[in-house]
Design goal:
The chain contains four helices and two strands; from the N terminus they run ββαααα. It has helices at about 20-25, 30-40, 45-55, 75-119; strands at about 1-10, 10-15.
């Protein structure tokens, strides 16, 4: 944050140019930063941008969190966690469908035999 004296006619004003990065990382305490992030994380605009990063890798405007080849960033860990949950859900759905197919096969076999005995 750099204060600058600005002369406007006979008066002098102080102008503060605030860089969001400097404000968040250099000026705010860890607790203040946590509270701000917690508050922002509940806003739909923020959620939409984060979801877009998780699904697509980038926000609507092409921004992205940090990436590393070792999958160590929060974004990469979150994407991996979602993928694992999706895999688990898909696996459970497939298993349920396979059980239903087996049950239907038994029903078909039962009715086939019942029909043969009847005729």
């Amino acid at each position: 944050m750099q204060p600058t004296l600005v002369k406007e006619g006979a008066s002098t004003c102080i102008r503060l140019d605030i860089c969001p990065y400097e404000l968040i990382h250099d000026v705010m305490t860890g607790e203040d930063r946590e509270l701000m992030i917690e508050s922002l994380s509940c806003h739909d605009e923020v959620i939409n941008h984060v979801v877009c990063q998780l699904v697509e890798g980038y926000t609507y405007n092409g921004f992205s969190g940090t990436w590393a080849t070792s999958r160590t960033t929060a974004l990469q860990r979150a994407r991996e966690k979602i993928a694992l949950q999706y895999d688990y859900a898909a696996k459970k759905t497939i298993e349920d469908m396979q059980r239903q197919i087996e049950s239907l096969k038994k029903d078909v076999e039962y009715w086939r035999k019942a029909t043969e005995l009847h005729y």
